[in-house]
Amino acid sequence: MQRTLINVKRVKKIVLGLICFLSITSSSYAKIWLPSILSDNMVLQQQSEATIWGWTTNAAESITITTSWNNEAVSTKAYQGVWSLKLPTPEAGGPYTITITGHEVLELKNVLIGEVWFCSGQSNMEWTPLKGLDNVEQEIKAANYPKIRLFSVNKKKSEYKQDDAQGTWEFCLPETMKDFSSVAYFFGRELHNELEEVPIGLINSSWGGTPIETWIEKEQLEAHSDLKEASTKIKDYVWWPRDPGVTYSSMVHPFLNYNIAGCLWYQGESNRQNAQSYYKSLPLLITSWRAAWQKEFPFYFVQIAPFTYNDFKEEVALVRDAQLQTMKTVNNTGMVVTNDIGNLKNIHPTNKQEVGRRLALWALAKTYGVKDIVYSGPVYKTMEVKRNKAIIHFDYVEGGLVSKEGELKTFYIAGADKKFYPAKAKIIGNTVEVSAKEVKHPVAVRFAFSDDALPNLFNASGLPASAFKTDTWTE
């Protein structure tokens, strides 16, 4: 009996020892990690709630976060290895440090507080200075802005929503800017300079050749039978993602916790095969992204430039018109027109400086409230008919209308027979008077409505008028 009792005691000691050993071991090997977007050198959105989140191998880990901008500790507890909490951010400034404490301690250093923009689309957004840019050597050499931070998202497609996407926050320096989105950089540089050097964070998540359908959550797109059917018409892009949702899942979804000021979008060339659906897909992308981020952020985009396509020529004009209608109908959006800075022989125009500047005009005026900025060229408003002439009225004609390099070009007019003829157009005050001898009773006017149109109508601030059509004819 005595011997039995001794054995029981020994077993208890062994079990307790094992428990202590396993506890110490699990603590030693417990790991906390963060998504790539939360790292040294990042920019957090100012005067907002920044979500800090991550994972741990300890399913119920206690996490405490302290920031150097207020030295206050905030705590949470992981649930099944996932944790997150929100931190109020101050006005623009820094650098700061964020300390994350659990079984181990992580430090995020050189963190700035400022304005964060998510930049997406296809190749004209992706296009880097080294691929082609006006005055490239001078621009690269001058790109020394340590308060502008750049994050390039690695290209990846996925059928399933990803929690993380690979990338690294970097200082804006000549050696980093040369491989970053030109449009995003010039946009950020303009904001930085005009907003008293506020820190700017730019997230470039773009992929050349991608149709818009890849950037919309699959379930959202396929809830619309017409958009689902239209997505099947994208057939010729075997080298790039083309299936609904596959870049959204891997290159947008991972950033939904990251608070942003707004979005930039430059895309559309790859949707000329199903251009009619763009009238619906672009608004859907905007509204679904806003819902996913749970924020009605501004969304500024670029109308695709003129280019001599070998196919689907008229459909390109429809893409541009869909972009125009989206700007008119979706709240808190803005559109940059590029029909004066395109290149008919190059689908990637090299004057990205002006594209970025024009995007920044929208943001400065509409998002940041800077006064006395003309941020849009003329936009078609209404048409009235006086005898054999059509009178076109415009919005955004501050200072009047201007014709550059001679008489107005690329205006066409039609009667009830729907046959369009080249028209004579002249500026009368803040309107354009359009007529053609073949059309006695005007019904419709179209302007710059082709793939390679090079119009010359501007407002006094030098911003070009958007292509438009007054009719709703589908043929």
Automatic annotation (TrEMBL):
Residues 115-360 form the Sialate O-acetylesterase domain. InterPro entries: SASA, SGNH_hydro_sf, SIAE. One of its GO terms (biological process) is carbohydrate metabolic process. GO terms for molecular function: sialate O-acetylesterase activity. It comes from the Bacteria. The keyword Hydrolase applies. Gene3D superfamilies: SGNH hydrolase. Keywords: Hydrolase. The keyword Hydrolase applies. PANTHER family: SIALATE O-ACETYLESTERASE (PTHR22901:SF0). This is Sialate O-acetylesterase.
